[in-house]
C-alpha cells in the first residue's frame, strides 16, 4: 500500500540537494505568480518552519563545531587564523562597496525619478567601534543563546573550548579534559546528524518562501524597481567574478568549490538570510574537507560581519537615492555605506 510513497521518498532523498532546491525555486515562483496572495498565505507556515529549523540548529552547530575544532590541536592557530580572517573580511567588504558604487555610478539607477510624496526620515547614529567590540562579550550566556547572538556564541565557544584544551594539557585534570573533549565531539556528531535530517526539508521550505514572496510582491513591484534590481544583480555578478579571481589566486579548485557552495548560495537567494543559511554553509565547508576550527570560527563571524551582498545593496541604494533627489553622491557616501554595512 505504501510502496509508491516509499519509492517516491527514496527518490527524493537520494537526488541531489541542489537539484531539489533549484526545482523548488522555479516551482515556487510559478506557483506564486499563478496562485496569488491566497496561495502565498497558505504556504507561509512551511517557509516559517524551515527558517525556525535552521535557526534552531545554528547555535549548537557553531558552539560544538568550534569547540571540537579547538580540541583537535588547533588552539594555537586561532590567533593567526583570526588575523587573516579579519583582514580578509576587511578587504572583501571594501571591494563590495567599491563594486556597488562603481556599477551604480555607471548605470545610474533612479535617474529621472521624482521625490513627490516622499517623507523625511531621521538617520540613525552609527555605533562606535568600541561599542561593537564590547558587544562581542555577552553579559549573560543564556541571553546570548536566547537572542541568537552569533558573536556572543563564538566568544563563548572560544573561551570554553580553550579552557577544555587547557585541562587536557594539565597534569592534575588531564583525564577530565579528555572526557570533556570526547563529550564535545559526541555532541558535535549528534548535531550534524540532526542537521542532515533538516536538510531534507530545505527544498520544501524554499518552495514555500519563494511562492509566498512572489505571491505577495507580484511582478508589478519587481518591474517598478527594475533598474535597481538590474544594477544590484550586475554588481553581485561582478563581485562574484572578484571572488572567483581570489579563489583561483589561492589555488582553490573552482569545480569542487562550487559543487558544494551552490546549495547554500541557492538557499541564501531564496531565504535572503545569511544567518539562516549558515547551517548549510557549515555543512558545505565540512564536505570540502576544511578544518573545523577554521570554518567553525570564520563562517559564523562572516555571517554577522562580512555581509558583502548587504554592503553592495547599501552602496547602490545610496547612489539610487542621490539620483532620485537630483544630487551627485560624494565620497562621504562611500564611507557611510561601508560603516553601515552589517
Automatic annotation (TrEMBL):
Its main location: membrane. Signal peptide: none annotated. InterPro entries: Na-dicarboxylate_symporter, Na:dicarbo_symporter_sf. It is found in: Cell membrane. Keywords: Cell membrane, Membrane, Transmembrane, Transmembrane helix, Transport. It comes from Halomonas elongata. This is C4-dicarboxylate transport protein. It is a multi-pass membrane protein. The lineage of its organism: Bacteria, Pseudomonadati, Pseudomonadota, Gammaproteobacteria, Oceanospirillales. GO terms for molecular function: symporter activity. Pfam families: SDF (PF00375). One of its GO terms (cellular component) is plasma membrane. The chain crosses the membrane at residues 21-43, 49-70, 86-107, 150-167, 187-210, 230-250. Coiled coil: none annotated. It comes from the Bacteria.
Amino acid at each position: 500500500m505504501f510502496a509508491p510513497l516509499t519509492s517516491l521518498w527514496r527518490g527524493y532523498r537520494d537526488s541531489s540537494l541542489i537539484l531539489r532546491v533549484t526545482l523548488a525555486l522555479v516551482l515556487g515562483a510559478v506557483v506564486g505568480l499563478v496562485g496569488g496572495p491566497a496561495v502565498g498565505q497558505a504556504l507561509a507556515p512551511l517557509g516559517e518552519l524551515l527558517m525556525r529549523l535552521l535557526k534552531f540548529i545554528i547555535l549548537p552547530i557553531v558552539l560544538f563545531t568550534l569547540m571540537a575544532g579547538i580540541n583537535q590541536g588547533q588552539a594555537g592557530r586561532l590567533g593567526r587564523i583570526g588575523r587573516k580572517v579579519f583582514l580578509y573580511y576587511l578587504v572583501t567588504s571594501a571591494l563590495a562597496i567599491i563594486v556597488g558604487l562603481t556599477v551604480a555610478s555607471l548605470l545610474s539607477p533612479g535617474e529621472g525619478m521624482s521625490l513627490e510624496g516622499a517623507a523625511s526620515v531621521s538617520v540613525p547614529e552609527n555605533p562606535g567601534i568600541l561599542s561593537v567590540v564590547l558587544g562581542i562579550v555577552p553579559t549573560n550566556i543564556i541571553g546570548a543563546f536566547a537572542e541568537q547572538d552569533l558573536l556572543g556564541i563564538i566568544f563563548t565557544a572560544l573561551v570554553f573550548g580553550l579552557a577544555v584544551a587547557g585541562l587536557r594539557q594539565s597534569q592534575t585534570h588531564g583525564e577530565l579534559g579528555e572526557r570533556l573533549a570526547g563529550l564535545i565531539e559526541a555532541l558535535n556528531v549528534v548535531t550534524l546528524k540532526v542537521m542532515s535530517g533538516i536538510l531534507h526539508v530545505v527544498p520544501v521550505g524554499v518552495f514555500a518562501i519563494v511562492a509566498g514572496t512572489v505571491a505577495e510582491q507580484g511582478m508589478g513591484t519587481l518591474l517598478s524597481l527594475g533598474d535597481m534590481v538590474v544594477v544590484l544583480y550586475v554588481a553581485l555578478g561582478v563581485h562574484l567574478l572578484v571572488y572567483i579571481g581570489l579563489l583561483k589566486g589561492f589555488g582553490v579548485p573552482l569545480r569542487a568549490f562550487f559543487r558544494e557552495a551552490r546549495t547554500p548560495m541557492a538557499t541564501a537567494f531564496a531565504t535572503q538570510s545569511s544567518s539562516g543559511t549558515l547551517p548549510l554553509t557549515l555543512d558545505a565547508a565540512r564536505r570540502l574537507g576544511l578544518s573545523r576550527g577554521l570554518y567553525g570560527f570564520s563562517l559564523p563571524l562572516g555571517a554577522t560581519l562580512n555581509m558583502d551582498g548587504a554592503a553592495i545593496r547599501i552602496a547602490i541604494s545610496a547612489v539610487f537615492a542621490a539620483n532620485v533627489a537630483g544630487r551627485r553622491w560624494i565620497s562621504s557616501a562611500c564611507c557611510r555605506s561601508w560603516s553601515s554595512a552589517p
